[in-house]
Design brief:
Structural class: alpha+beta
Largest sheet: 6 strands, mixed
Distance between the termini: 39 Å
CATH class of the largest domain: Alpha Beta
Number of domains: 2
Number of helices: 10
Number of strands: 10
Strand content: 15-25%
CATH architecture of the largest domain: 3-Layer(aba) Sandwich
Helix content: 25-40%
Radius of gyration: 19 Å
């Protein structure tokens, strides 16, 4: 796994054009190269169940139904371990050879691409934590969605500004502007709280929006033309960051401390 992205200390507002491109369900973006996608997904650890040969656990569709087999990919190591524990209780013969295996989201992407032209293509289904799904559902319904359940894996982003001029909060990385997207609402709230310290008036207009990871992943491969997604960075959740930190004593690459920069004021027009 690649190192976590370190934040710089500068915060600014993305333009309204970026906002309109990102918050639509059907995103219109410039397709990223496979190398760019791997770079963006590499810092995100996920967890799946594999057998002793490293093959992922696969669920086939019910008999008579036409669908691709699926493999579950958990954003939480604990959720993956709990799922394995239930399997051991319900299907001990199946579960006895299984283990929870960590890998990066980039590896999941690469595995999916390898089976893309296979008649029995394997679909990887991301499993978010219940807490974040419930937080996303509340945000979506507060915006008028009227959902019974959140239909995918939530990503949280922050906006600020006047109603018709709201833009996404960004961070500055050297000469590059980046739009952070969080798997955990609480992390984003901390980001907003730091923004409030530097720009209390503007921060009063800040709100949290929720997007679908699945839409973002599809958009990364879209042939349409809009370079917005090149600015996106994904911020691992707290549990994932803690997992990465545990890799360091074992001498494994890829662990890095959590982003901890304090946002500076956004520039005024």
């Amino acid at each position: 796994m690649k190192s976590l992205i370190r934040w710089s200390a500068k915060v600014s507002l993305a333009s309204g054009a970026v906002l309109s491109a990102l918050l639509l369900n059907a995103l219109s973006v410039l397709a990223l190269t496979p190398e760019q996608i791997v770079q963006k997904l590499g810092p995100i650890p996920v967890f799946t169940l594999t057998d002793d040969k490293g093959a992922p656990l696969v669920s086939n569709p019910p008999q008579g139904q036409k669908a691709n087999p699926i493999s579950r990919v958990f954003l939480s190591q604990k959720d993956a371990q709990d799922f394995l524990a239930r399997l051991k209780a319900e299907k001990p013969d199946l579960a006895k050879s299984l283990q929870v295996r960590p890998l990066s989201m980039a590896e999941v992407y690469e595995l999916k691409m390898k089976s893309k032209n296979n008649p029995s293509q394997l679909d990887f289904v991301y499993i978010p934590t219940r807490k974040q799904s419930e937080a996303a559902l509340a945000l979506a319904n507060a915006a008028g969605a009227k959902l019974q359940a959140f239909p995918g894996t939530p990503l949280f982003v922050a906006r600020a500004g006047k109603d018709k001029e709201k833009g996404l909060l960004t961070i500055q990385q050297g000469n590059e502007t980046a739009i952070p997207m969080f798997f955990e609402k609480e992390q984003l709230q901390t980001f907003i709280d730091r923004f409030k310290q530097s720009q209390p008036d503007l921060s009063k207009t800040a709100d949290i929006q929720v997007l679908l990871l699945e839409n973002i992943l599809d958009a990364m491969q879209s042939p349409q033309k809009d370079a917005s997604l090149e600015q996106l960075i994904l911020i691992p959740n707290t549990e994932a960051i803690q997992f990465l930190q545990t890799l360091r004593p074992a001498g494994k690459p890829g662990a890095a401390p959590a982003p901890a920069a304090k946002p500076a004021p956004a520039p005024t027009k």
